[in-house]
């Protein structure tokens, strides 16, 4: 297997950034550390890339996202790319398909490319990948998903508040049988949406049980099947909250197959406010995340992180939590 800069850093017991500085003859690295790096290179027979210095001269950010097919994630990524280019950065996008192994592979690859840093929206579920980032000196900003065990600047929406707003809205429309279709991933943002929904419904004396909750992967086919299961119960819901708009579309498809009209027979509310919410029939009522602002703020925090590292200032971790908004369209109605 090809020897990588990560292998050299591990053998020399230094960071990837230190190996990079030694190879580029930059930075104030003491002779003892340099020698350890040279010894590791020799022992491993490491062959540095001939384009090393060219890559290092370019200002590039690696952006790690869970699923490029997710319309909302595509919009956030576009906002990051546009804002980054205005600041003079190239942006390299990697989609993990919610696969922890891919997450680790991409992080290792991005570290080897001598990027200026990373913006990560995957939630860092791979513990090895998380440890690699902790050991490195690469600037990182977290986007859309928080990672409690990783002290980095982050930008996200108040997912709990979004779920709470959805629950309150449905209760105010008179719905007493509310179901939830949640994305089947172990990430705090999705859990917080569910917790917010439950708390709002409880506050409005609307029961929420395990029987009224289903989980599905982020796919139309499986979300439709999960929604069909909900709509096939003896006591069916009059409203369904979907934790993403892909899942909400699955609910719309299931309702159509069951011969139910939306919103006359069933109200549906999603989460994100991507372009998808505007092209469905009927158009989706949804909890909106400010995609453009999230991308802009991620770049702003990234630039701050670069300056802090350059000036060797003590890092104060910033956690920006943006406010979601209820966007009422055609897929919800008052229960009559």
From TrEMBL:
Assigned keywords, A-Z: DNA-binding, Transcription, Transcription regulation
UniProt-listed Pfam families: LacI, Peripla_BP_3
Domain HTH lacI-type, first and last residues per copy: 3-57
GO molecular function: DNA-binding transcription factor activity; transcription cis-regulatory region binding
SMART domains xref list: HTH_LACI
Presence of keyword DNA-binding: yes
Name listed for the protein in its UniProt record: Substrate-binding domain-containing protein
């Amino acid at each position: 297997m090809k020897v990588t800069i990560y292998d050299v850093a591990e053998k020399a017991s230094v960071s990837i950034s230190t190996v990079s500085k030694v190879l580029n003859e930059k930075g104030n690295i003491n002779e003892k550390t340099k020698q350890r790096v040279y010894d590791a290179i020799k022992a491993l027979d490491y062959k540095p890339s001939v384009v090393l210095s060219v890559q290092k001269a370019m200002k590039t950010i690696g952006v790690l996202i869970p699923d490029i097919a997710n319309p909302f994630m595509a919009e956030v990524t576009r906002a990051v790319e546009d804002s980054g280019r205005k600041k003079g950065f190239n942006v390299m996008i990697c989609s993990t398909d919610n696969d922890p192994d891919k997450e680790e592979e991409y992080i290792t690859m991005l570290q080897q490319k001598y990027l200026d840093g990373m913006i990560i929206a995957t939630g860092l579920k791979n513990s090895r990948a998380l440890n690699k980032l902790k050991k490195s000196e690469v600037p990182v900003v977290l986007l859309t998903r928080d990672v409690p065990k990783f002290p980095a600047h982050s930008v996200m929406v108040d997912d709990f508040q979004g779920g709470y707003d959805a629950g309150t809205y449905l209760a105010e429309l008179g719905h007493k049988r509310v179901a939830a279709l949640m994305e089947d991933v172990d990430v705090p943002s999705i859990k917080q949406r569910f917790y917010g929904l439950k708390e709002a419904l409880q506050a409005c004396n609307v029961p929420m049980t395990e029987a009224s909750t289903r989980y599905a992967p982020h796919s139309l086919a499986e979300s439709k099947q999960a929604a069909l299961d909900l709509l096939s119960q003896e006591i069916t819901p009059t409203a369904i909250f979907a934790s993403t708009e892909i899942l909400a579309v699955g609910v719309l498809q299931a309702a159509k197959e069951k011969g139910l009209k939306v919103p006359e027979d069933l109200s549906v509310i999603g989460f994100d406010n991507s372009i998808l919410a505007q092209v469905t029939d009927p158009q989706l009522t949804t909890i909106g995340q400010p995609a453009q602002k999230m991308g802009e703020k991620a770049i702003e925090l990234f630039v701050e992180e670069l300056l802090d590292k350059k000036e060797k200032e003590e890092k104060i971790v910033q956690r920006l939590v943006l406010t979601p908004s209820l966007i009422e369209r055609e897929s919800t109605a008052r229960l009559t």
